[in-house]
Design goal:
Elements: H1 9-64, H2 68-79, E1 84-90, E2 96-101, E3 108-118, E4 121-131, H3 133-184, H4 198-255, E5 259-264, E6 269-272, H5 274-279, H6 291-296, H7 300-314, E7 321-328, E8 334-345, E9 351-360, H8 362-384, E10 388-393, E11 398-401, H9 403-409, H10 413-416, H11 421-424, H12 431-441, E12 445-454, E13 457-470, E14 473-482, H13 484-530, H14 536-544, H15 549-558, H16 561-583, E15 594-596, H17 598-610, E16 613-614, E17 619-620, E18 625-629, E19 637-639, H18 641-659, E20 670-678, E21 681-688, H19 695-700, H20 718-729, E22 733-739, E23 743-751
Parallel strand pairs: 18-20
Antiparallel strand pairs: 1-2, 1-4, 3-4, 5-6, 5-9, 7-8, 8-9, 10-11, 10-14, 12-13, 13-14, 15-19, 16-17, 20-21, 21-23, 22-23
Helix pairs in contact: 1-2, 1-3, 3-4, 13-16, 17-18, 18-20
């Protein structure tokens, strides 16, 4: 019978509706999908070009200026763009200046890289990676829209087809179903020729032929059934093996996807995958699947630890098996391995199988070691620096504390970590405001010669505060350099320059003053001689004038003229002494140098000072405790003993005079004289517990004619002359350290040998 006999449902429905409508709709939607996807992809590519161009242009100035904070801020801003998944900024040598990856995105495939230029020179590299995930989501939405449209079309087609099927299929199928049921009951007399539809008519004819053949085949079914039973038993065996294989695969997937091992704990049979063997350099056929292969290749130092971890896991002491160890490679070297696994237990809880993975972590171990060595090197660099290096977080808590900080404070790094900056360094509380300002503004803050009082001593520091950004967290590094010695030396240099300028002036002034001063002293002396009763010529001149010399003498004494002459002589001698001291500024002493023991010289000077007391000026060495602290091993010093003695005597007298200004205090007046050996020089310290002096007085104490004494009690040249004796005549150093209410310490440093 011809297939086209009667009316065909397939031709009427499938060809007419499905082909005509679905092809048109699908073609239209496909063209729209391709056009929209290409436009969106072009938009992503354009944004990638725009971002990399803007980033490389903006970075030129901060990279050129090494402005890491600005680089971090720029990189952070670009990393926050919606399509951007990764931003990397490198210097010309490939060092990472900034790197940010939002997430591990397999769709991050739009890659742009560009050199950062500054005045024609490549100063860095910028990389931007855009993700296509948003692009794919848009395409997904487009596909969904198209599918909904296509679904709508299908619904229309299905509704139309359903109506047609009701007309063309339902009634013939009901007749066909009745005939099939009758055949199924074993009645093969149904007349299928009543079905006139072409397709169903062919089915009906086939059912008629099949019914005739069913009886003949019933006999064959028994034999077929027996054969099927055998096939079922074989399939059950295959399925059991398949379940075993699937169980092994499931265990491996649970652990990892590296080298696979499977261990039957009852029989000690083990399986090593080809990947397991290739990790240690072998082909699959070069190593047998034997437990001894694993244990025999393990590093001896790791074997006991790994076996113990295995036993702990199987016995339930630990809930997972994960251990790192070393296996010998084919080349003889050892590779670091991460072994992980899980076991399968029976109903009683006893393990009978264990499987897991074998992961090569050698590179990670090498990287960890390099990281540790790098950290160790950085720590050594920080600890070797003479500066105090302290880093703090945004809450001003200590995060880094170098060796110099430990030595300066006596606080170990472990004790300082996580404590507040003000608690660990209370003397530097004034830096907290600057630290917060540096973190907030991202700028360096530098302070020079900042005074810090520690106990009884004021020290000076150069301080720099650097802001730091680490993984988005803001912190700061504080560097403290003790410049007290440099500060003192600079003061000495200023003082020396003052002395040199005054020395030149003093030489000229001394010669100019000496001439009229000599006339004044000589004239005053002659006046006294002319009125003296000891010379006959004076009596004769008085008689010639018609009076006696005694009367003239009486008149002069009554009118105070003799007292005025004594005042002129005393003032003239003081002025002559000042001129003599001023001349010391203009020439180096040619005094004879000799080797002396400083202790003996100091003792001699103290003996001289002990005999010098002035109740009117309120000082008396007999009531002052003199403490001697001499270094017994100090070698002799080549110097002018008379000049050093003069300097020491001046210091002792000044200290004794200062004691009168101490006021009422419980501690007795005391002067401590110490000698020591310091950096190739002899050092003398003269310290008193007097009233001390303020900072302004301390800075001017060596200036010529500067004095804090009352008028007539000092010329202000004693310390100036002493300064020149030490620094100019002996190539030494002369410094002072003082604080109000805490006394004064003068320090003299002399070279051991004369130049």
């Amino acid at each position: 019978m011809s297939i086209f006999k009667g009316k065909s449902i397939s031709r009427d429905l499938t060809v007419s509706l499905m082909v005509m409508i679905l092809l048109v709709v699908a073609s239209t939607l496909s063209w729209q999908y391709m056009r929209n996807s290409q436009e969106m992809l072009n938009e992503v590519e354009g944004k990638a070009d725009e971002y990399i161009t803007r980033l490389s242009d903006i970075l030129s100035v901060p990279i050129w200026n090494f402005d890491t904070r600005t680089i971090d801020q720029i990189g952070t801003v670009f990393a926050q763009y919606d399509l951007v998944n990764e931003v990397r900024i490198l210097d010309p040598l490939g060092k990472v200046l900034f790197s940010s990856v939002k997430k591990d995105d397999p769709d991050a495939r739009v890659f742009r890289e560009r050199d950062v230029m500054y005045e024609g020179e490549i100063i860095g590299h910028a990389t931007v990676v855009l993700s296509l995930s948003e692009y794919k989501r848009d395409l997904g939405r487009l596909v969904t829209t198209n599918m909904l449209a296509l679904g709508g079309v299908l619904c229309v087609i299905l509704v139309a087809t359903g109506i047609l099927l009701r007309i063309y299929l339902r009634r013939p199928l009901e007749v066909l179903l009745e005939g099939v049921n009758q055949v199924a009951r074993g009645d093969f007399s149904f007349d299928f020729s009543v079905i006139q539809n072409a397709e169903l008519g062919m089915i009906a004819e086939n059912f008629s032929v099949m019914a005739k053949e069913v009886a003949a085949r019933e006999k064959q079914l028994v034999e077929i059934n027996r054969q099927l039973q055998g096939q079922i038993r074989e399939r059950e065996r295959v399925e059991a093996a398949l379940r075993l294989s699937e169980e092994r695969y499931s265990l491996v997937v649970t652990a990892t996807n590296d080298g696979i091992w499977d261990w039957d704990l009852n029989t000690d049979e083990v399986y090593f995958s080809p990947r397991w063997k290739s990790i240690i350099g072998y082909q699959d056929n070069e190593i047998v699947n034997d437990l001894d292969e694993w244990q025999g290749r393990m590093h001896p130092a790791d074997l006991d630890r790994v076996l113990r971890a295995h036993e702990d896991y199987l016995s339930g002491v630990t809930d997972q098996f994960e251990v790192e160890y070393r296996l010998r490679h084919k080349d003889g070297e050892y590779r670091w391995i991460l072994g992980r696994g899980i076991c399968v237990r029976d109903d009683s809880g006893e393990p009978y199988r264990m499987a897991g993975t074998h992961t090569d972590i050698t590179q990670r171990k090498l990287a960890e070691r390099e990281l540790w060595e790098t950290k160790n090197t950085l720590d050594n660099i920080l600890n070797s620096m003479p500066s105090i290096i302290v880093s703090v977080d945004k809450d001003a808590r200590i995060t880094q504390w170098n060796k110099t900080a430990e030595e300066a404070t006596g606080i170990l790094a472990a004790e300082a970590y996580s404590r507040s900056f003000a608690e660990v360094l209370p003397g530097y509380k004034m830096l907290l405001t600057h630290i917060k300002e540096s973190i907030a503004t991202g700028t360096n803050i530098a302070m020079e010669k900042e005074p810090v009082t520690e106990g009884e001593r004021t020290r000076y520091f150069d301080i720099i505060i650097y802001p730091v950004v680490t993984r988005g967290e803001f912190s700061a590094v504080v560097r403290l350099d003790d410049v007290t010695d440099r500060f003192r030396i600079e003061e000495m240099m200023v003082q020396t320059e003052k002395m040199l300028s005054v020395g030149g002036l003093a030489a000229g002034m001394a010669h100019e003053i000496n001439n009229p001063l000599g006339g004044i002293l000589q004239g005053a002396q002659n006046i006294r001689r002319r009125v003296s009763l000891d010379f006959p010529a004076n009596h004769k001149a008085a008689e010639e004038a018609g009076c006696s010399l005694e009367s003239i003498r009486t008149y002069l004494e009554n009118r105070g003229i003799i007292r005025f002459l004594d005042g002129i002589n005393e003032s003239g001698r003081r002025a002559a002494n000042i001129v003599s001291n001023m001349l010391e500024f203009s020439r180096r002493s040619e005094a004879r140098r000799t080797s002396v023991h400083l202790g003996e010289l100091i003792d001699k000077t103290i003996d001289l000072a002990a005999n010098d007391y002035d109740l009117k000026k309120k000082y008396d060495f007999r009531h002052i405790d003199i403490v001697r602290n001499y270094e017994p091993s100090l070698p002799q010093v080549v110097c002018s003993p008379q000049e050093i003695e003069q300097v020491l005597l001046n210091l002792l007298k000044n200290a004794a005079q200062a004691m009168a200004e101490r006021g009422e205090r419980e501690d007795p007046p005391q002067i401590v004289i110490s000698t020591s050996y310091e950096r190739g020089r002899a050092r003398i310290d003269v310290a008193d517990n007097g009233p001390g002096m303020d900072e302004e007085t301390r800075k001017r104490v060596f200036e010529p004619f500067f004095t804090t004494k009352a008028v007539g009690e000092g010329t202000g040249l004693g310390l100036s002359v002493s300064y020149f004796i030490i620094t100019t005549n002996h190539d030494g150093q002369f410094t002072v350290d003082a604080e109000v209410g805490r006394g004064t310490t003068f320090t003299i440093q002399l070279p051991l040998e004369s130049k």
